[in-house]
Amino acid sequence: MPRPKRHHFVPRSYLEGFVDPESGCLHAYDKVSGNYWTPKPKNVMVIKDYYKQQVPDGIDPDILEKKLGESLESEIKSSFSKLVNNPCTLTNEDTANILTYLELQHTHVPRQVELSKRFSKTGRLRRALQETFPELGMGESTLAYSDHFRFDFIKMFWGTFAHYFACMNWDVVKAPRTCSFITSDSPVSFYNIAFPPPTEAGPGLVGTMVLFPLDSQHFLVLQHPEYVSGTITTATEKIPADALKPEEFDLTYGKVVDKEQVYRLNYIMLHLSHRIIVGKNRDILEKAIDPCLLDDLIN
């Protein structure tokens, strides 16, 4: 059997939630080239051999791609369906699936690969590694970067982000019938009002929100309860260590937000994307792109 070569870094099954119901296609925009087009979900956010790893003989180099398809991506569809339609039926396994998916989807996309490259070149990654692994020593060292460094980057942060997610309040909001949410090639993004996009703050800051469009009509927003309640009002303040105790988090759902809130979220998704956004129609993409309409919404 031939090995799969076209690897989706954003799942095809997820992208299907943003298609134009009449054509079955997505409306897409490339913010680098300025081009619009209408691809099928199978033909966008896909890179040849993206998950192929350099492994010892006898190990399947496509094990990550296969495991994603066979396990997490098949299970997460059911978990997200419960989150959107009947959150009361969510199980601990569903919650674990969602936490794992959000973390993995955030870290393995091309935008994060590029950020990790810049991070490593500045020397900050070496210092972070030395703090995490003191046995490396504090002397000068050289970090070799290759395309496969992204797998090490995922391993380095594995479990870190999900720990924050599990301590945040979850809110599933709906778009009004007259508009819809878009998504991007970096669908799980971090936004902090103190760091205008394209800067992305870490989830360890109290004002950082985790944004994830679930489909064209539903959007998942995660926020630190300390900031929502006003216990801590400075968005750049670090979350106290004693606050990071995962318990049963607050989940709200069903609130219909107004068009301006939809446009604001879409604007943020555009500017935290790597280069591509998609939605169910071109009009909603153009509204996200139009600075005259949206500059004041981000402030």
Report on the structure:
The chain has 299 residues and is an alpha+beta fold. It has one domain (6-297). Helix content is 36%, strand content 15%. The chain contains 11 helices and 11 strands. Strands 7-8-9-5-10 form a 5-stranded mixed sheet.
- Proportion of helical residues: 25-40%
* Uncertain spans: 58-63, 140-145
Cα radius of gyration in angstroms: 19 Å
How would you describe the shape?
Answer: globular
Strand content: 15-25%
Average residue-wise pLDDT:
81
In oligomeric terms, what are we looking at? Answer: single chain
Give the tally of β-strands.
11
Strand order of the largest sheet: 7-8-9-5-10
Count of folded domains: 1
Which structural class do the helices and strands define? alpha+beta
Number of helical stretches of at least 4 residues: 11
> Secondary-structure element sequence?
EHEEEHHHHHHEEEEEHEHEHH
CA distance, first residue to last residue: 53 Å
Please sum up the structure shown:
The protein has 299 residues and is α+β, with helices and mostly antiparallel strands. 36% of the residues lie in helices and 15% in strands. The protein contains 11 helices and 11 strands.
Secondary structure elements and pairings:
Elements: E1 6-8, H1 12-15, E2 27-30, E3 36-37, E4 46-48, H2 63-85, H3 92-107, H4 110-121, H5 124-132, H6 149-157, H7 160-165, E5 169-174, E6 183-184, E7 189-191, E8 209-215, E9 218-223, H8 225-229, E10 251-256, H9 259-271, E11 276-279, H10 282-289, H11 291-294
Parallel strand pairs: 5-10
Antiparallel strand pairs: 1-4, 2-3, 2-11, 5-9, 6-11, 7-8, 8-9
Helix pairs in contact: 2-3, 9-10
